[in-house]
Write a structure and sequence with these properties.
The protein is built from twelve helices and no strands. It is mainly alpha-helical. It folds into two domains: about 35-95 and about 265-300; about 105-260, no CATH class.
Length: about 300
């Protein structure tokens, strides 16, 4: 017989035999030996309890007791595995992106918007209904204009009171004059990787700051194209910010809903159920054999 088809008798060395004996413990559900000391302790304790319950008198009865005990320990292992699967699914469902996407009505969300929402969530923001209304009104005012007609700051002062109040507020907060603020903002527009910024909502259009004259004294230097570009980008940011804030307001609640409804992978769950059914069947059959043997012994 050719050497390549000769039968082998398994590992020869002590190390090889030890490794082979551990093969069945690679997957905890099918392990022949106990995978930790807790299982060994549970097995020993259950053997004692079943021995008290059934008082085995023969060697075969003791074997059946041990088999029932093995089934019991494996069933507990299966339950623990299933619990861990549900816990893991619940943890994975807590991911903010999943909650955000579930609130977006399956619309495609810009990755920058998702990053901004997640960053804002970590800052524990509070919902400000007044700010949301102000943002909507400000965006509507900008969108109502033909921005090509914006010839300079004087046009904003005359036709766009909400935009004027907002810009003056931003200048005052950052201690910048109007010309420097618009120049900086339009230069930032050249950075295509600039992240979407949430526009702070508290008292969005209030204007109780340092004298406006000081901030606007160089407003005649502002190029109309720069002002137009700034207003156009401001409208876009507001358009992203408003739905984002609404999503953000509901993210925590939705995250909890997703967590509560989380399910493990159905294929893995089915795998677990098959092992449970097999062990329950084996336990029941073994118990039936034990009771039948004891019935026969007692009838003699």
């Amino acid at each position: 017989m050719p050497n390549k088809i000769k039968n082998t008798s398994g590992p020869k060395t002590d190390e090889g035999k030890a490794n082979s004996s551990r093969n069945s413990t690679t997957h905890g559900l099918t392990a022949r030996r106990w995978i930790n000391t807790d299982e060994q302790s549970l097995f020993d304790e259950t053997v004692k309890n079943l021995t008290v319950d059934f008082d085995p008198q023969t060697y075969i009865e003791k074997i059946l007791i041990a088999k029932m005990d093995e089934c019991s320990v494996r069933l507990i292992r299966i339950q623990n595995t299933e619990n861990a699967m549900f816990d893991l699914a619940s943890i994975e469902a807590e991911h903010t992106v999943k909650a955000i996407k579930s609130l977006s009505n399956n619309c495609e969300l810009d990755s920058r918007l998702i990053d901004s929402i997640e960053a804002a969530r970590l800052g524990k923001p509070t919902c400000n209904p007044r700010a949301t209304v102000d943002k909507i009104n400000l965006m509507d005012e900008i969108d109502f204009q033909n921005l090509s007609d914006v010839s300079g700051w004087g046009y904003v002062e005359k036709h766009m009171p909400m935009a004027e109040a907002y810009i003056i507020k931003k200048c005052s907060e950052e201690d910048l004059d109007l010309y420097s603020f618009i120049l900086r903002e339009t230069e930032n527009l050249a950075n295509v990787n600039k992240k979407i910024k949430f526009i702070n909502g508290g008292a969005l259009l209030d204007n109780r700051f340092s004298p406006k004259v000081k901030m606007t004294q160089d407003s005649n230097k502002i190029q109309s194209t720069s002002l137009q570009r700034y207003l156009e980008q401001l409208s876009r940011n507001l358009g992203s910010d408003i739905p984002a804030q609404m999503i953000l307001h509901n993210t925590s609640k939705r995250s909890q809903q997703l967590k509560d409804a989380a399910m493990p992978d159905t294929q893995k769950l089915s795998f677990i159920q098959r092992y449970r059914t097999a062990d329950e069947r084996q336990f029941s059959e073994t118990l039936g054999k034990l009771l039948e043997l004891q019935k026969r012994r007692n009838s003699i």
